[in-house]
User: Which sequence fits this backbone?
């Protein structure tokens, strides 16, 4: 390690439109430098994205710890198994190996909702809470993370539960609220149906609700009629980067 190195891990939040990254101080779960954003290349093939990662990491030469990357898809042992809003060439790609070889750093890939869930449990809304915490992200779809006593159960994909004959996220995601011009009350009824199903299946201690719409939680969360405590996420746009850095640091090679 050189005199100018920090040992700080680096988090990268890879999405369909932008790739954002920053070094992370895991003592407090905060960025150790200003975040940098680069447009996602088109097409967003694994090789093209890997080159963006090289460029991004080159902007932070002092951060030389492990690198965590969020992916909007199922990830098993570093291999991407599904691709929601990214190029279909990702399916079957050993992303851990590809990015490690491209960057010369130890890179670990994690589902984007799982990363956000880890961050919220360690540093955010669910900090200090034991038992089962279910973190859901309401956006274009519904992402989910199951964290039990601080341990992630990966790739839960609870947005795809079938409820009343419908894929849950096609009825209750925030994009559906906008597209169908639902009132807060109408949307909250759909969310109540969704979260009651999760209650029945998992009996969690706490629900944490993230996604951009969580900034307006006061308009809809009090209307969600369930027994389990349900609260808004705290880290918001930082959750993916922070959670990815945390996941990479704690992952075993």
Assistant:
């Amino acid at each position: 390690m050189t005199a100018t190195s920090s040992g700080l891990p680096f988090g990268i939040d890879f999405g369909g439109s932008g790739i954002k990254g920053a070094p992370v101080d895991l003592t407090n779960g905060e960025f150790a430098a200003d975040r940098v954003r680069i447009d996602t290349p088109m097409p967003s093939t694994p090789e093209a994205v890997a080159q963006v990662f090289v460029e991004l990491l080159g902007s932070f030469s002092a951060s030389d710890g492990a690198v965590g990357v969020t992916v909007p898809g199922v990830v098993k042992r570093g291999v991407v198994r599904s691709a929601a809003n990214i190029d279909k060439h990702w399916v079957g790609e050993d992303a851990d190996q590809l990015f490690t070889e491209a960057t010369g750093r130890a890179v670990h890939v994690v589902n984007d909702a799982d990363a956000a869930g880890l961050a919220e449990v360690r540093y955010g809304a669910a900090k200090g809470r034991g038992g089962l915490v279910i973190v859901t992200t309401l956006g274009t779809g519904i992402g989910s993370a199951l964290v039990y006593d601080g341990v992630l159960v990966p790739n839960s994909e609870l947005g795809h539960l079938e409820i009343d004959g419908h894929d849950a996220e096609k009825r209750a995601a925030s994009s559906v609220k906008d597209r169908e011009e639902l009132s807060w009350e109408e949307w909250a009824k759909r969310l109540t149906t969704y979260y009651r199903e999760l209650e029945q299946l998992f009996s969690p201690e706490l629900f944490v609700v993230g996604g951009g719409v969580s900034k307006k939680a006061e308009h809809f969360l009090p209307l969600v009629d369930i027994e389990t405590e349900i609260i808004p996420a705290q880290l918001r746009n930082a959750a993916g980067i922070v959670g990815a850095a945390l996941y990479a640091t704690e992952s075993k090679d």
